[in-house]
Amino acid sequence: xxxxxxxxxxxxxxxxxxxxxxxxxxxxxxxxxxxxxxxxxxxxxxxxxxxxxxxxxxxxxxxxxxxxxxxxxxxxxxxxxxxxxxxxxxxxxxxxxxxxxxxxxxxxxxxxxxxxxxxxxxxxxxxxxxxxxxxxxxxxxxxxxxxxxxxxxxxxxxxxxxxxxxxxxxxxxxxxxxxxxxxxxxxxxxxxxxxxxxxxxxxxxxxxxxxxxxxxxxxxxxxxxxxxxxxxxxxxxxxxxxxxxxxxxxxxxxxxxxxxxxxxxxxxxxxxxxxxxxxxxxxxxxxxxxxxxxxxxxxxxxxxxxxxxxxxxxxxxxxxxxxxxxxxxxxxxxxxxxxxxxxxxxxxxxxxxxxxxxxxxxxxxxxxxxxxxxxxxxxxxxxxxxxxxxxxxxxxxxxxxxxxxxxxxxxxxxxxxxxxxxxxxxx
Length: 427
Fold this sequence. Notes:
Blueprint: E1 14-16, E2 19-21, H1 26-73, E3 87-92, E4 100-110, E5 116-126, E6 135-141, H2 166-172, E7 175-179, H3 195-209, E8 216-225, H4 227-242, E9 247-254, H5 260-267, H6 271-288, H7 303-313, H8 321-328, H9 346-352, E10 364-369, H10 377-389, E11 394-399, H11 407-421
Parallel strand pairs: 6-7, 6-8, 8-9, 9-10, 10-11
Antiparallel strand pairs: 1-2, 3-4, 4-5, 5-7
Helix pairs in contact: 3-4, 5-6, 6-7
Region (Disordered): 1-23
Keywords: Hydrolase, Membrane, Transmembrane, Transmembrane helix
Transmembrane segments: 35-55
């Protein structure tokens, strides 16, 4: 009788994590892959749902807050005068980034001529109890958005968008306050590149932060980009005399506007240069014109250039860029009739609003993108050299392959540890 072939014994199926494994493992691997894909898909869906909820919450709240904003900024003239830094009113912003709470603020400040004014901004603080010694304040100076009331960063759907590094500062435990600058948001005198006005606005915003339930201490650091760097440098120069109750720890700036005469001359052959100088010429003639009758736009600008300035000053850099380009482009090469940096009284006005005439009493961090075509690296380098000659402790961070728009965000990872190293940590 022939022998039957020997059949291998079948291995009983194994059970692993609830999955039946076939003897050859093929079905098992397929099922494991399907299981992994299913789990990953569920996780991705959850993340998307949470992210969408967060974004939708902020957008929905922001749209409502933008719609309600005009009433908040309206003034009647009955507010009277009050010490700078006095809060007129505030309102909670439900569009605050996750992990923070925020307020829109209207407060008293002063302009370059010493007048009591009202200006606006936002305050953002971490959620939860502050440490016993309180939280350090970061007073932020925003880059150019325009000069008209509607160009104020606090007015839009997302009033936090232009606060570069906001999430990092909040996560680190700082209170962040962002002034709009006078004439933006609330009605008031022009402030574009007028150092004493911008600087006072930043310092008074920090004062307001201490009156809200933010846990803010008296410790202050200043942080600004472009026009905001100009504002932060002036606030640093003014702080000891203007706001002696605040303890200034450090100043950090990214691509700051420094030597205004040289900056205008370097940029005047571009649309951006014509636009920015129009904002400045409008502000200077408005603020200083009444006391300086010979500060006439027609002394330095062509007739077409002088006629264009008021219209450009009413337009915002974001959202109305096309209109600005339409006005500015034909003026390239046909804008100036004289150099404002050498023509009085413009020469004196530009010099008085150029930061660096006095040494900062605290350490200074300066970041500059090396491919910046708006604030040129050589101008920032010259400013750093002058500051060091005055005895200022300066850290200068030159960032390769970085233009004007990206420099502040790229500097934040170095700004935070630097602040901690010089005593400006969040505590």
